[in-house]
Design goal:
This protein has a single domain, classed as Alpha-Beta Barrel (TIM Barrel), CATH 3.20.20. The N terminus is likely disordered. It is built from 9 helices and 9 strands. The strands form 3 sheets. Strands 1, 2, 3, 8 and 9 form a 5-stranded parallel sheet that branches. A two-stranded parallel sheet has the order 4-7. A two-stranded antiparallel ribbon has the order 5-6. Helix 2 packs parallel to helix 8. Bound molecules: zinc ion. The site of zinc ion (ZN) has 5 residues, from loops.
Length: about 260
Amino acid sequence: MAVMSAMLVSASCAQATETIEWPDGKKAAIALTYDDALDTHLDAALPQLDAHGFKATFYLTLENEGFLNRTEEWRAVAENGHELGNHTLFHPCQSSLPGRDWVQPEADLDAYSVARMVREIALTNQLLTLFDGRSSRTFAYPCGDSTAGGESYVDAIRPLFDGARGVASYSPDATYDFYQVSTYGPEDVSGDMLIDYAEGVLEEGGFGSFTFHGIGGEYLTVSPEAHAELLDWLDAHRDEIWIATFQDIVTYTKDAG
Ligand SMILES: [Zn+2]
């Protein structure tokens, strides 16, 4: 596709989309995303998002208690216009990477095959569709890992999604790939540091995303205060920055070329 080859990543913290005109004359786009179906997403992040009217993407891992214990709340989240994204049933990750001692053998992506991973992801999609009634959504790679049994599963999941959020680090000559969109995953940072990233995305005119985990608890935590400072700043710049679900931004960007 000509559009995809023309859109080169030329920014340090956002995937630049130089050929894109953002809606309503805005200059950049940012997706707020939250991984793993955590309690603090519902208890801390969601009230802040709803106060500003921002629509976010929640990448749900369906076996997590934060999903199973609170399904009616998640259903309401979807009805309120947020995206319920696919983050698999069991969150398999590669045990062979550094710092992965915690990966359980039955959820070891190195012991999966591509076919097994696709089967799990496709079933997650079907369950989410039963749940929110939506026929399409986006995916986030658990742990950012994109190989199963040592083989990339990126191509195998393209037909299943509008796009996918990776955690791949920036590569200056990488061609834009809507199925490996880079992101910023903050942990224990100040509001100013979150805003620094958003300012960079605005300056570059690109498509940025935040990957949050715990908000004021759980793990990879960002404080509710820092999260609130970011949302206040985004609200003050909402005439310049399009804040939308990952799905809405990816879909718009693919179509805009
Ligand atoms: Zn995750």
